[in-house]
Amino acid sequence: KLHSDLDKGVGTVKYTLSGDGAGTVFTIDETTGDIHAIRSLDREEKPFYTLRAQAVDVDTKKPLEPESEFIIKVQDINDNEPKFLDGPYVASVPEMSPVGAYVLQVKATDADDPTYGNSARVVYSILQGQPYFSIDPKTGVIRTALPNMDREVKEQYQVLIQAKDMGGQLGGLAGTTTVNITLTDVNDNPPRFPKSIFHLKVPETSHVGSAIGRIRAVDPDFGKNAEIEYNIVPGDGGNLFDITTDEYTQEGVIKLKKPLDFETKKAYTFKVEASNLHLDHRFHSVGPFKDTATVKINVLDMDEPPVFSKPMYTMEVYEDTPVGTIIGAVTAQDLDAGSSSVRYFIDWKSDVDSYFTIDATEGTIATNELLDRESTAQYNFSIIASKVSNPLLTSKVNVIINVLDVNEFPPEISVPYETSVCENAKPGQVIQTITAADKDLSPAGQRFSFKLSSEASNKPNFTVHDYRNNTAGIETRRNGYSRRQQELYFLPVVIEDSSYPVQSSTNTLTIRVCRCDSDGTIQSCNVEAIFLPVGLSTGALIAILLCIVILLVIVVLYVALRRQKKKDTLMTSKEDIRDNVIHYDDEGGGEEDTQAFDIGALRNPKVIEDNKIRRDIKPDTLRFPRHRAPAEDNTDIRDFINQRLQENDVDPSAPPYDSLATYAYEGNGSVAESLSSIDSLTTEADQDYDYLSDWGPRFKILADMFGEEESYNPDKVT
Q1: What are phi and psi of 282, to 5 degrees?
Q2: Can you tell me where the transmembrane regions are (predicted)?
Q3: How would you classify the pairing of strands 174-184 and 89-94?
Q4: Residue 591 CA to its chain's centroid (Å)
Q5: Taking 80 as the threshold, does the pLDDT of residue 575 lie above it?
Q6: Structural domains in the chain?
Q7: Fewer CB within 10 Å, N or C, the chain?
Q8: Range among 7-16, 306-315, 576-585 rated most confident
Q9: What is the DSSP code (8-state) at residue 185?
Q10: What is the pLDDT of residue 654?
């Protein structure tokens, strides 16, 4: 209520209200000054309102007192329940945790005024989830209430939490939320085999490294806590097997380390230990986290292929050994209980040319062809053995045969030598050192000997000096040689080897006589140099040849210039009209002539457009045009001729002479009409050549020539 001291109660004072909510939330009685709320108030929406009031004169509307400001506070009541803004909650706690282990803290919010009464004082409690968990009434912290909760027994828990205001008293408002709690796994369980003995049956033909069986230990834990490692306990038969862990199924996979043989041992027994990889020290007191089981393996007898006595056979044979000679044998036997006979044969894929044969029963290998070490020094093929009782069971072995060398090739000069001797050579001078080579396989310490043949040893020209190290030197035996007398010498050299039987060959060396200077440097070995004039040096010969070449070039240039000058005179001279007369004496063969041109192209203008290659020729003689009766009208051909005529007239790249184009069809209305003399109705005397001037620049020369001829005609009177 508002009241002014100037208000005498006679109705001369008027009260006004302005500010927050004036007229919408609050109203004032203008006469009495009473303030009323005209709608419900919510403290959580707006806790206070600031208003201004004033007393004015009813008649003059002037303020009687200064404007005053006041605040209206909204008093709180408990009209809001606590709310869990982050719910529902998800939490986890390790299994086997002790009592009081922290799980989660929840928080509820009450919108009421915490400074007025107990409307906003919240108390927490558990409605569902006991006796496993507890909650602090004031802080909302959830903790475990039972010890040793086992995940393998129960993993998921749902706890219902209540928050109540007014300090939990009767009449307070409450809100609830759900907390889903999961027990996480710890390694609190060791692996255990479901049975103490595992029986496996394995064929003796199982391959090394293959899996022959699986065993499994059970661990109720989860994830890495359930990872198991398997090991074979050293003992009887354990060294033949190995065990690994399948990372997906956690099974123990038993693999074969060595081959099994039923005839040698029929059963194996060993122990396998399963243990956890990741141990938890808190549960060591429970006991060892491992278990042991026995594995018994029975080997099954299988029908096996024959077994060779060696993993590989190596044999030797001399080349050129007669066909059918036995060079060795292979042996295979059936080790099964009911022993079967064995048959042998050569794998044809490895011996395509059939150089060898094998006895199917005895396994002896013999030659089937003559062998040549120089062609093939080693043969590598496979022998297959199969059981007679079961031919499908086969085994294979590799056989290597080395071909031994027989001394059958004589030694020869290793490379062709170009030997020369100076005309001024002295006796005993070494002019060439030679070596030898043998196609045979030279044994250690192989020696070659060199000597002259018997017919050459008596000649006084050259000799051979054997150095005893598989080389020899060619030496001169006389003082000086003359090219004029003999240019070439042929020296037969005999070379022998030291193998058995001894092989020898005669090799001929060609020795050329050359002209040398005083130091022995070769200057010339050509035959032509012998016949050169005395006193004429090489420089002089080069100078003479150069002069001859220059004279030939001058002559060629002179002839070319003369021809060019003559051609220019014929093409450029215009004083004599006869020099510019071009005679056309080549008439087309008409429609029957199909060899000189393609007549079909003229009947198809599109083909002509695609092929614009000009066939320009230089005409020799001139044929005067004659009139011919116009042919049947054909606009396509006429347009085509006019188009080609226009292109030729304006083409600056065409040759400087007329272009002769042969057309298989003569159109109607052509300016030039017919150029053929066949069926001509007029004579040369009746022709008027003035129309040539209208044909364009291509026919300017013809127009000038025939115009001049007509002007000088003595039969005409001007």
Answers
A1: -70, -20
A2: 530-561
A3: parallel
A4: 65
A5: no
A6: 13-73 (2.60.40.60), 83-184 (2.60.40.60), 197-300 (2.60.40.60), 307-404 (2.60.40.60), 412-524 (2.60.40.60)
A7: C
A8: 306-315
A9: P
A10: 60
Q: Which helix (H) or strand (E) holds 541?
A: helix 538-572
**What is the CB neighbour count within 10 angstroms for residue 710?**
13
Residue type, 639: D
pTM assigned to the model: 0.42
Per-residue model confidence (pLDDT) at position 12: 81
Residue 27's CB: how many other CB atoms inside 10 A? 15
Query: What Rg value do the Cα atoms of the chain yield, rounded?
Result: 64
Q: What is the C-alpha to C-alpha distance for residues 385 and 398, in angstroms, rounded to an integer?
A: 12
Q: What is the pLDDT of residues 25-52, one digit of tens each?
A: 888 888 888 888 888 887 778 888 888 8
Instruction: Record the tokens describing residue 135, joined without a space.
Output: 């909650």
What percentage of the chain carries pLDDT values higher than 70? 80
Instruction: Please tell me the number of Cα atoms within 13 Å of 157 on its side-chain side.
Output: 30
Q: How far apart are CA 86 and CA 165, in angstroms?
A: 18
Instruction: Kindly tell me the burial class for residue 52, based on how many C-beta atoms sit within 10 Å of its own C-beta (0-12, 13-18, 19 or more).
Output: middle
Identify the residue whose tokens are 């794998």: 347
Cα–Cα distance measured from residue 95 to residue 154, given in angstroms and rounded to the nearest whole number: 10
Determine the average pLDDT of the residues in 416-424. Answer: 89
Cα distance between residue 148 and residue 4, in whole Å: 78
- Nearest CA to 657 among 627, 622, 688? 622
Q: Which backbone phi and psi does 351 adopt, to 5 degrees? A: -135, 70
Contacts of 659 (CB under 8 A, 6+ apart): 614, 615, 616, 617, 648, 698
H-run or E-run covering 495: strand 488-496
Task: Return the amino acid letter for 500.
Answer: Y
pLDDT in tens, 518-541: 888 888 887 554 444 445 566 778
Does the structure show a pLDDT above 90 at 442?
Answer: no
Burial of residue 690 (CB within 10 Å: 0-12, 13-18, 19+) is exposed
Classified as helix, coil or strand, 647 is: helix
Q: What is the DSSP string of 245-277?
A: E-TTT-EEEEEESS---TTT-SEEEEEEEEEES
For residues 515 and 26, give the distance between their C-alpha atoms in angstroms, rounded to a whole number. Answer: 143
Contact at 8 Å (CB) between 421 and 510?
Answer: no
> pLDDT tens-digit profile of 225-251?
888 999 998 876 678 899 999 999 999
Pick 656 or 324 by higher pLDDT.
Answer: 324
Distance CA 460, CA 479 (A): 10
Q: Checking DSSP bridges between strand 211-216 and strand 156-164, what pairing results, if any?
A: unpaired
Pairwise CA distance, residues 280 & 14, whole Å? 87
Please say whether the beta carbons of 386 and 343 come within 8 A.
Answer: yes
Count Cβ neighbours within 10 Å for each residue of 123-151 and write b for 16 or more, e otherwise.
Answer: bbebeebeebbbbeeeebebbbbeeebeb
Amino acid identity, residue 186? V
Sign of CA dihedral 299, 304, 306, 308: negative
**What's the angle, vertex CA 694, arms to CA 693 and CA 696, rounded to 5?**
85
In angstroms, the Cα distances linking 255 to 230, 231, 252 are: 12, 12, 10
At 370 the three-state DSSP class reads coil
- Can you point out the beta strands (E) in 321-467? 326-329, 332-333, 342-346, 356-358, 364-367, 378-387, 394-404, 412-413, 419-422, 430-437, 449-452, 462-466
